[in-house]
Amino acid sequence: MSAGKLRYAVIGIQGIGRYHVRTSQEQPQVELVALVDVDAATVRRQAAELGVQPFTDHRDLLAAGLVDAVSIATPHRHLAPIGPDCLAAGLHILVEKPFATRISDARTMNELAKQRGLQIGVAYQYRTLPPGPGSKRFWIVAHWVSYSRASGVGLNSGRMPTTPAARGGPPGRRAVAGSC
Fold it and tell me: Closest Cα to residue 8, out of 26, 35, 28?
């Protein structure tokens, strides 16, 4: 492992997970070390292409102790068991919105993160921003990683808007975004 780099895995490598894989590889402070997906053939093939470890169950990844943080890019219904498991294992997590499908699940994850001093990042899209250097779909990963590693500050540190209205989106709707 490279000194000073965040050892990273992506859980759920199909769909939006493909972007998490690509973006993690573009970050100089991140070392992608593992992929997790229930589709064994897909995860083995992609892990071999990238030179990382494949897993078909997130619990096997946790038991291996290979990573410091994970992206969870699975269908929303799978966030509840995966997120708390990762936090309980001492990993920072980045999830796709919604952060949780039930308030009780969100509270559980926030409490676990607070107890262990971990960061939770929630990726949400900036579809309403005009094109430009900062409007890449997953630039948020770089911010989350650098804030988490350098200062312990989460995504909602006052540097980034937290509601659609603040981002120029439709007023009256709240975005579930930020960290614990």
Answer: 35
Q: What is the pLDDT along the chain (180 residues), one digit of tens a residue?
A: 456 889 999 999 998 899 899 988 888 889 999 999 999 999 999 999 999 999 999 999 999 999 999 999 998 888 888 999 999 999 999 988 777 888 888 889 999 999 999 988 888 665 555 555 544 444 444 444 444 443 333 333 333 333 333 334 333 333 333 333
Contact 71, 17 (CB under 8 A): yes
Helix (H) or strand (E) holding 115: helix 103-116
CB atoms within 10 A of CB 173: 9
CA angle (21 as vertex; 82, 12 as ends), nearest 5: 30
Burial of residue 11 (CB within 10 Å: 0-12, 13-18, 19+) is buried
Instruction: Give φ, ψ of 121 to 5 degrees.
Output: -110, 140
Q: How far does the chain reach from its first CA to its final CA, in angstroms?
A: 28
pTM of the model: 0.71
What whole-number distance in Å separates Cα of residue 103 and Cα of residue 10? 24
